Amino acid sequence: MGELFAQFDVWSAFGQTLYLAFFSAIGALIIGTILAIMRVGPVGIFNKAGAAYVNLVRNTPLTLIITFCLIALHYQLKIYLAPEDSPTSIVDNGVRWAIVGLTVYHAAFVCEALRSGINTVPTGQAEAARSIGLTFTQSLREVVLPQAFRGAIAPMASVLIALIKNTTVAYAIGVAETAAFMRDGLEFRPDLSFLIFVLVAGFFVLLTMPLGIALTHLSQRLAVKR
Amino acid sequence: MAEPLVVLSGVNKHFGDLHVLRDINLSVDRGEVVIVIGPSGSGKSTMCRTINRLETFESGSITIDGKPLPQEGKELAQLRADVGMVFQSFNLFAHKTILDNVTLGPIKVRKKAKAAAEKEAMALLERVGVAHQAQKYPAQLSGGQQQRVAIARSLAMEPKVMLFDEPTSALDPEMINEVLDVMIGLAKDGMTMIVVTHEMGFARKAANRVVFMADGQIVEQATPEEFFTNAQSNRAKDFLAKILTH
Ligand SMILES: Nc1ncnc2c1ncn2[C@@H]1O[C@H](COP(=O)(O)OP(=O)(O)OP(=O)(O)O)[C@@H](O)[C@H]1O
Ligand SMILES: [Mg+2]
């Protein structure tokens, strides 16, 4: 074990995974919420645009999306997310494009988790909100979304757990995260392969299991009684 | 006499092929209490819901206090604030306390300060007899209590007119009167009310007029006394024969 940590920068690989997961999760939550509002709102064209996004993105492999981000958007179209002339430009652009890809992909799932939460809110709640004079936005913010979020915690937990594990796809575009450490480890220290597998699996379980337990607990505690 | 508070003229509405509202004309004066009765499916709920535009309609016009109903948007929200609505299934906000249910509209729509809104809300909850439950959640209250809170929630907006769509038909029999008593009180205090209900007792005690609907039309209108003892149309006579034998 000590050997592994001495030979490879395991901590920085774990750190990179956490970094990817954290910022992609925030991005996916924001964009996913906007998509969900578009899909349930009163404007037909937004409904369609939201549905098209979800169907397109959800049915495209994540590896494809992330490689597309780096190869097509970054290399081909020369879109830089980190300054071109900085010494860490290659690494930074890789990480940021990975976050964009993860965000775009998981936003579709966040949207659907939220919509399933919104479906737990009876239509009478929105009608009552509108009938006391709240605007569409106010009734969403004050009445529908707070209840929808509670109903969406459980499906959202699955999305977040998937997102954390899916950060390993960033390895496809050369981000030095946990899967990249695993590849290097297996290549240079095949004698330690079992240890490497256990270490990586342990890291993900340690990350996702408490999250799952906490969110399940939260969803039960906050459940809206009807 | 000043112009009527609520005026529907020539209102038509379809649900697909179904012509639910056929050329509805109805005026309600300030302080008037109008009961709407009629067989199931005759369009009573739909008529109520078009008055605060929870449902759209295709032709005709609806005015509240002289102002026509605006299209969707901020103005419509403002108008809805002036039209209280009490639903059959209460529809209290399930994630908010009783007090917060009542203060939400005054704070967000009327822009009142929280303390003032809460003080007024407590007075209203007192008036409907559920002040001691203010910190509870809707699911912890009985149906009758929830419906009284729903009435307080509407009253907090100081509406010009209140719509009630079968406010007691989801209630256990022993809870019906506690809600009707609150409504009778409102009627006595001069609130303009449009009430869909089959509660004859309430109609006789509080109503100025009964409107009888069938197949999406207003078939007959009369004072409660006249309507219950001497209905003119056959549809109304049939209907009364059915509900009075229960
Ligand atoms: N959202 C809707 N979509 C399609 N049809 C509807 C809708 N709402 C109501 N209807 C139909 O319109 C007709 C009138 O319904 P409405 O609810 O207004 O009747 P009602 O007089 O209130 O009846 P009840 O006494 O059963 O409440 C019914 O035939 C009903 O099935
Ligand atoms: Mg009805």
TrEMBL record, chain A:
Residues 14-215 form the ABC transmembrane type-1 domain. It is a multi-pass membrane protein. This is Putative Glutamate transport system permease protein gluC. It is found in: Cell membrane; Membrane. Keywords: Amino-acid transport, Membrane, Transmembrane, Transmembrane helix, Transport. PROSITE patterns: ABC_TM1. It comes from the Bacteria. Its main location: membrane. One of its GO terms (cellular component) is plasma membrane. It comes from Nostocoides jenkinsii Ben 74. GO terms for biological process: amino acid transport; transmembrane transport. It holds the Pfam family BPD_transp_1. Belongs to the binding-protein-dependent transport system permease family. HisMQ subfamily. The chain crosses the membrane at residues 20-40, 52-75, 95-114, 151-174, 194-218.
From TrEMBL, chain B:
Its main location: membrane. InterPro entries: AAA+_ATPase, ABC_ATPase_HisP-typ, ABC_transporter-like_ATP-bd, ABC_transporter-like_CS, MetN_ABC_transporter-like, P-loop_NTPase. Its EC number is 7.4.2.1. Keywords: Amino-acid transport, ATP-binding, Cell membrane, Membrane, Nucleotide-binding, Transport. One of its GO terms (molecular function) is ATP binding. It catalyses: a polar amino acid(out) + ATP + H2O = a polar amino acid(in) + ADP + phosphate + H(+). GO terms for cellular component: plasma membrane. It is found in: Cell membrane. It is an enzyme of class 7 (translocase). It holds the Pfam family ABC_tran. Gene3D superfamilies: P-loop containing nucleotide triphosphate hydrolases. Residues 6-240 form the ABC transporter domain. It is a peripheral membrane protein. Belongs to the ABC transporter superfamily. PANTHER family: AMINO ACID IMPORT ATP-BINDING PROTEIN, GLUTAMATE_ASPARTATE IMPORT ATP-BINDING PROTEIN GLTL. This is ABC-type polar-amino-acid transporter. It comes from Nostocoides jenkinsii Ben 74. The gene is gluA.
